[in-house]
Amino acid sequence: MRNFVSPFIFGFGGVLILIALGSWQIQRLSWKQNILSEIELTTTATPKQLPGNESKEKNQYMPVVTNGKILNSEVHVLISIKYKGPGYRVISAFDLGSRKVLLDQGFMPLNAKDNLSKPWQADVIGNLYWPSEIDSFTPKPDFTKGIWFARDVAKIAKKLGTDPVMIVAKSISPQRPEVMTLPITPDRIPNNHFQYAVTWFSLALVWAGMTLYLVWRIRYTKKKLRD
């Protein structure tokens, strides 16, 4: 019996830990679904004029409508999207007359990077957004090639001489032909907690099976030795 104690503790403990991790992901799934529902309600509300003194805490995802001049001072953020492949988010300075903000025009293919655009007057509907895309692994911008690797609103605003406020366009009229808008929608926000939960529960099942097999092997070996 003593030979079974260690495998049982190791196996049973591992199964409990994996089940706990799966259960935690189920809780995260419910939390994420509530967040996505709130985002959808916010982003689809009636657009309003920019309120002034905008902040992430008060105005994240707020729908706005405005008119201004899209300037040709812009940065290109390297991204890749499904069915399109790699390209850039085009983030421009947007002159509203009394102030300048950032405008995320959307996706531009790699081969369109060197296409120059003259400033133009446009009506814009979109959402205010301060993304959290920066971590310790994010590369620094390549200023030589004019390529960024994340939407760092504060640093891009400083680079383009605007307020640290960004509108992610839902529609631009008229729109730059080589750029496709990438509006903020819940389906663009990753929600993989269900897949993670399935993975942890599957591992728990495999772990339990391996534990039972180990116990059987120990018992079988002991029996063979007695015989």
Describe the structure.
With 227 residues, the chain is of the alpha/beta class. It folds into two domains: 2-38 and 191-226; 62-183, OB fold (Dihydrolipoamide Acetyltransferase, E2P) (Beta Barrel), CATH 2.40.50. It has four helices and six strands, in the order H-H-E-E-E-E-E-H-E-H. A five-stranded mixed beta barrel has the order 1-2-3-6-4. A hairpin with a 4-residue loop joins strand 2 and strand 3. Helix 1 packs antiparallel against helix 4 (193-226). The longest helix has 42 residues, at 2-43. It is elongated, with a radius of gyration of 26 Å. 23% of the residues are buried. The mean pLDDT is 86.
- Counted by DSSP, the helix tally is 4
The general outline is elongated
Strand order of the largest sheet: 1-2-3-6-4
As for the CATH topology of the largest domain, it is OB fold (Dihydrolipoamide Acetyltransferase, E2P)
The level 1 CATH classification of the largest domain is Mainly Beta
Helix content: 25-40%
Largest sheet: 5 strands, mixed, barrel
How large is the radius of gyration?
26 Å
